[in-house]
Amino acid sequence: MKEMKMTKIMLCSMGVVMFVLGSLTLSIPTLALTTLSLIFGFGFVVSGIFCLISFFSEKDILSNPAWVLIQAFLDIFIGIFLLWNLGPTAVAVTYIVAFWILFGGIAKFSAAFMLRKTGADKWWIVLINGVLGILTAFIMMFFPFAGSAVLVAIIGIFLALYGILIFLESSTIKIFELKKTDKISA
Question: How far apart are the C-alpha atoms of 33 and 93, rounded to whole Å?
């Protein structure tokens, strides 16, 4: 019960952080690449820390805890890389972010079907988040020279929507918790 509450708080916090990152990305286009390196560097480190906390506090109830741990290390590694290399080219930033979005999208896509098996009503929110991530990543990978303005817009919009959807995902925790306690009491 306590773990579920912690998960809900983490999802809400992560959603707010990602929404803020998206809003900042859209509002500061003139310093887009340097700003993206800083914003994403700190954002990835924070996201990785949240994933590590989730992994260690809830690995008994996670259907695929290895994915959460991999996501945590990937986020922290990318965050540190971006913070130490503030001048990467637009193409490098584009691909780094695209692979991160792709990995997260695949993880969300997979998690949606796990939620569906548990009977969660809003599993489709996680599915939409995964599909949005996969599509965004492919657009970024196939059109890396589209310009920093398009990159900033795609990333900003994705992060804002990703943040909103992660925030909404926290509502699946209560449903999952109720279904889990029903199984325990039966």
Answer: 8
Instruction: Please give the helix or strand (H or E) that residue 81 lies within, else none.
Output: helix 65-84
pLDDT in tens, 119-158: 888 889 889 999 999 998 888 888 776 655 667 787 788 8
CB 132 within 8 A of CB 162: yes
Residue 150: give the domain boundaries: 2-185
Please, are residues 42 and 177 in contact by the beta-carbon 8 Å criterion?
no
Number of folded domains in the chain? 1
70-to-17, 48, 50, 159, 165 alpha-carbon distances in Å: 20, 9, 13, 20, 21
- Supply the pTM of this predicted model: 0.52
Task: Identify whether the C-beta of residue 179 lies closer than 8 Å to the C-beta of residue 132.
Answer: no
